[in-house]
Amino acid sequence: MNAKPDISRLADSSPIQGEFQILTDAEAAYRIGQDGNGKNGVVGYLSWVAERHPQIFFTVLLINLPPLENAESDTPEEPRRTIEEINQWFPPTRSA
Fold it and tell me: Please, which residues have CB within 8 angstroms of residue 48's CB and are 6 or more apart in sequence?
């Protein structure tokens, strides 16, 4: 099944620029999820992109990973987060 998520319901009447656009994009990814209905939130959406558009996914990944790898930190390494923990960062989907 190669269904595309329907993001038309997420459209806002006023354009948002800059850092607020990033938050809007992340919320949209959370709401779309893996199945177009929010399954697994942001992680699900990124899995969907990686599966159906690997060239785009890995290009974005390669652009964003090197700065993260070179960053130095004095903080101890944190354990990996679960899908549920990551999705808690986003507000629950409002019903129409």
Answer: 5, 32, 33, 34, 35
**Tens digits of per-residue pLDDT, 3-13?**
655 555 544 44
Range of 45's domain?
18-69+80-86
Go through 66-89 and write b for each residue having 16 or more CB atoms within 10 A of its CB, e for each that does not. eeeeeeeeeeeeeeeeeeeeebee
Its pTM stands at 0.50
Number of domains in the chain: 1
Residue-averaged pLDDT of the chain: 75
